[in-house]
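Deliverable D2.4 — example input (structure tokens):
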């Protein structure tokens, strides 16, 4: 009953003063404070928790497509380091705040080797090349997303982009990860720019939000 009386009194007071200039100014200030607080909260969520990111290019085909919008979660990397297989948003060295989506292939201390094998079709004797990755001397198990790598597309020359080339070995430095695009022959990644410091790993991609027809979880 008491609360009801207080609400009724407040409504009467507001009615009496609704044409008062000072009352309107105070109401506007309250509204602006509310909007300001809302914007600060949204900025904090974007900066520290979640962020929408647009996929630009085809380096992650067929896992992610050009123009899709993903949700990037940042919290888990506060407590744990990125691991091999994670799809991440990173900043490349000397590229400022520009964001790139890649997959973690190896983590600190691991050895990367990029190799090529010749595969001969038993029926036609036609030869084709298959590129693969060794991590700590073991061929990387890419069976979960092997179909997304499009290794036969004639884009960049496989593995010869420069930082790590075919037949060479490379040890990922402490505090860094080695990233590559799933579309191996059409990806600008750690083979060219080198390892990515953990401070430049923005967060982990968990799924696609837009367009709605493509909404899905990715891994």
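Example output (designed residues):
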């Amino acid at each position: 009953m008491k609360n009801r009386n207080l609400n009724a009194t407040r409504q009467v007071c507001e009615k009496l003063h609704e044409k008062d200039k000072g009352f309107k100014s105070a109401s506007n200030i309250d509204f602006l404070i509310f909007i300001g607080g809302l914007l600060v909260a949204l900025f904090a969520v974007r900066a520290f928790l979640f962020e929408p990111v647009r996929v630009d290019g085809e380096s992650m085909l067929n896992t992610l497509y050009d123009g899709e919008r993903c949700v990037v979660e940042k919290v888990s990397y506060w407590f744990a380091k990125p691991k091999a297989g994670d799809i991440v948003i990173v900043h490349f060295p000397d590229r400022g705040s520009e964001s790139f989506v890649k997959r973690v292939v190896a983590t600190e201390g691991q050895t990367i080797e990029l190799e090529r094998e010749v595969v001969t079709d038993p029926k036609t004797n036609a030869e084709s090349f298959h590129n693969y990755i060794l991590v700590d001397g073991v061929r990387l198990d890419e069976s979960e997303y092997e179909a997304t790598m499009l290794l036969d597309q004639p884009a960049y020359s496989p593995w010869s982009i420069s930082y790590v080339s075919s037949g060479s070995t490379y040890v990922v430095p402490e505090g860094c990860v080695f990233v590559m695009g799933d579309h191996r022959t059409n990806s600008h990644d750690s083979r060219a720019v080198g390892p990515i410091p953990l401070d430049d790993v923005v967060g982990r991609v968990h799924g696609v939000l837009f367009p709605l027809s493509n909404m899905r979880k990715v891994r």
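The radius of gyration is 26 Å.
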